[in-house]
Design brief:
Elements lengths: L2 H22 L6 E8 L2 E7 L8 E7 L20 E8 L5 H14 L1
Antiparallel strand pairs: 1-2, 2-3, 3-4
């Protein structure tokens, strides 16, 4: 596998993981613009043009650990639970870098 294909595969995998994390917080129609990982924290920046109050957002999630399972399932069959931590919203794309910086700073202290 060449480097370009590997990079594309990793980007696709990160977006898929981000989609699951966002869905756990009820966010299903947003376009993912940036995905980062800082330690055990997953950071996802999104754009949702139909949201007239805050179309840009950055959300943080704790990556599920083995004990983060839904108790309504049998042991070994439970899906992992994403834990939303903190989020920031903004009106314009120029606010996203600042929101990402805040999320990264938060993740480093969490």
């Amino acid at each position: 596998m060449n480097a370009t294909a590997r990079t594309a595969r990793i980007a696709h995998l990160r977006e898929s993981i981000a989609r699951r994390a966002l869905a756990s917080a009820g966010i299903t129609s947003a376009r993912i613009t940036n995905v980062r990982r800082v330690g055990t924290i997953f950071i996802v920046a999104t754009e949702e043009p139909t949201n007239r109050w805050a179309p840009y957002a950055v959300e943080t999630f704790r990556i599920p650990e083995p004990d983060d399972t839904d108790r309504d399932y049998e042991p070994g069959e439970a899906p992992k639970i994403w834990c939303p931590l903190a989020g920031w919203v903004g009106d314009g794309p120029d606010e996203v870098p600042d929101m990402l910086a805040k999320a990264i700073a938060y993740a480093r202290t969490a």
